[in-house]
Specification:
By secondary structure, this protein is α/β, with parallel strands linked by helices. The chain contains eleven helices and 27 strands. Bound molecules: alpha-L-arabinofuranose.
Length: 530
């Protein structure tokens, strides 16, 4: 044996043994925050939601006239309370795929026109429409965000809806609103120009070029009716193997950059192969797609004529876990898309929210799809409701993470995934160096909030959290979402997964050390004294 090699081996072993004896072998993970290293302002609209005429989202969800649980306007009081807990910023309405066969005039005034609803195979009674949704918004403090029909609808129909909603008086549709009992205009600021128009499943689907032309003209008419509105273009939602989402996004951004204010992106992920680690890495796809579209926006912004208007931003205006209720049968009728969530889904949702915060400079809207019953955080039956597991991370973020997003440094162990489908009807991915700790942080006038997902299924991870500028001061509150079983679900009368408040941490100086439990979401909230 080579003596030199032998001596080195002995030396290395001695060093390892020495440090093991001192208890220094297992390095703590490192999280460093610097309140001067910022990414962007966290827009409150990151905590938005979505109400579509689909399954029991509207009828039997938020709206159930005649139910002993409903108020005088037909709204479920228990649902209103649960919705308020989510501090929802924007409510996207009325679809989704539904909007591509929706004619808003059917849903206003004393006579409502029942229609075959072709997106989700239901009868749409139109008992609930614009004015009812605005009542819901008023009761919950939600700001409306309307989607116009760019499928079977015309640009004039879109314009008339803006008139109905936003013009005070005079023209026909403004007067119609007044006659219907709503004298004041609603002043709806956010309008999206259709939904998923690149999807072959979309009624009236278009090519990128045809969509750009139609959206541009719709935008013109809508803005001439109310110049103050913000417009959202339908970015690609078609990441299926044969689609070219980047081509769609590049084309519509090129054509619409001086017209729109946001580009909408959608993502649904799932765990059909029951591979926990693959599934837990899916929020990284949000970071990656965001960066790609951000590059396209920056490219087009260079030559855009936008005057004083802010740059174009990204609206992730549909995101969620959705893969169980995805058979032909479970996607139709009044019980469509009733997904029952578990703990691992809640971890993925926290990962999505972390990704939005990490990209707060460019992502300014994010809507969890949807709000009640349909792939939703709130689930009802005729007599009760329960909060699904995914309710809890959204509630934590929407009530705590505001201010400036910080550029957090994270050093921890990582893993690689194999190649897998992100979700049903999605592309494949292979993620390398996925950090076990997924982190975001915000800073707001001395208050710092960190959200940490420990992706490790079996091991707690101890991390030293260091403040680079200023000392941690006083008491830090700690909130945790976890449970013994990653497949744990909630149900009527059974709350297995929820947020627990943990003992406060007394923090002093520049570092605090915390052990993040396996498969958990932890939010730590306190102050930094500068
Ligand atoms: O949220 C469910 C559906 O998913 C929406 O209607 C559509 O936009 C997307 O494909």
């Amino acid at each position: 044996m080579n003596t030199h090699k032998h001596v080195s081996k002995v030396l290395i072993c001695t060093v390892i043994l020495f440090f093991s004896a001192l208890g220094l072998h297992a390095q703590n993970a490192k999280i460093k925050i610097d309140v001067d290293r910022t990414i962007g302002e966290v827009d409150r609209n990151l905590y938005s939601n979505f109400v579509e005429h689909l399954g029991r989202c509207v009828y039997g969800g938020i709206y159930e006239p005649g139910s002993p649980l409903s108020d005088q306007d037909g709204f479920r009081k228990d649902v209103l309370e649960a919705v308020k807990g989510l501090n929802v910023a924007l409510g996207r309405y009325p679809g989704g795929n539904f909007v591509s066969n929706y004619h808003w005039l059917d849903g206003v005034g004393p006579t409502r026109m029942p229609r075959m609803e072709l997106a989700w195979a239901r009868l749409e009674t139109n008992q609930f429409g614009t004015d009812e949704f605005m009542k819901f918004c008023k009761k919950t403090g939600i700001e409306p965000y309307f989607s116009v029909n760019m499928g079977t609808g015309t640009i004039e129909e879109a314009r008339q809806w803006v008139e109905y909603c936003n013009v005070k008086e005079g023209p026909y549709f403004a007067e119609m609103r007044k006659k219907n009992g709503y004298p004041e205009p609603y002043g709806i600021k956010y309008w999206s120009l259709g939904n998923e128009m690149d999807g072959f499943w979309q009624m009236g689907a278009l090519t990128a070029e045809d969509y750009s032309k139609k959206a541009r003209e719709a935008a013109k008419l809508m803005r001439l009716t109310d110049p103050s509105i913000k417009l959202i273009a339908a970015g690609s939602s078609n990441y299926r193997p044969n689609a070219d989402p980047n081509e769609w996004n590049a084309t519509i951004l090129k054509e619409l950059i001086d017209v729109v204010d946001y580009i909408a992106l959608h993502i649904y992920v799932g765990n059909p192969d029951n591979n926990y680690y693959n599934f837990l890495s899916t929020p990284l796809v949000v970071d990656q797609r965001t960066q790609i579209v951000k590059g396209m926006i920056l490219k087009e912004m260079e030559k855009a004529h936008r005057g004083n208007r802010p740059p174009v931003y990204i609206a992730w205006d549909e995101y969620n876990v959705w893969y169980r209720a995805r058979t032909d049968e479970s996607m139709q009728g009044t019980r469509a898309l009733e997904e029952h969530y578990n703990l691992e889904d809640a971890l993925v949702i926290a990962g999505f929210l972390n990704a939005f915060i990490r990209n707060a400079d460019i992502v300014k809207i994010a809507n969890m799809a949807q709000l009640v019953n349909v792939i939703a955080p709130i689930f009802t039956n005729e007599t009760d409701l329960f909060k699904q597991t995914i309710y809890y991370p959204l509630e934590l973020f929407a009530n705590n993470m505001f201010g400036t997003s910080l550029d957090v440094f994270v050093d921890c162990e990582t893993y690689n995934t194999d190649e897998f489908y992100i979700g049903l009807g999605e592309s494949t991915t292979r993620q390398k160096d996925v950090p076990y700790l997924d982190v975001s942080a915000t800073y707001n006038d001395g208050s710092v909030v960190l959200c940490v997902v420990n992706r490790n299924k079996d091991k707690a991870i101890v991390a030293d959290i260091t403040s680079q500028q200023g000392d941690f001061s006083d008491v830090f509150k700690v909130y945790e979402i976890t449970g013994p079983d990653i497949k744990a679900t909630n149900d009527f009368g059974k709350e297995n997964v929820s947020t627990m408040q943990k003992p406060d941490i007394k923090a002093k100086g520049k570092t605090l050390t915390y052990s993040f439990p396996p498969h958990s979401v932890t939010m730590i909230k306190g102050r930094i004294a500068r």
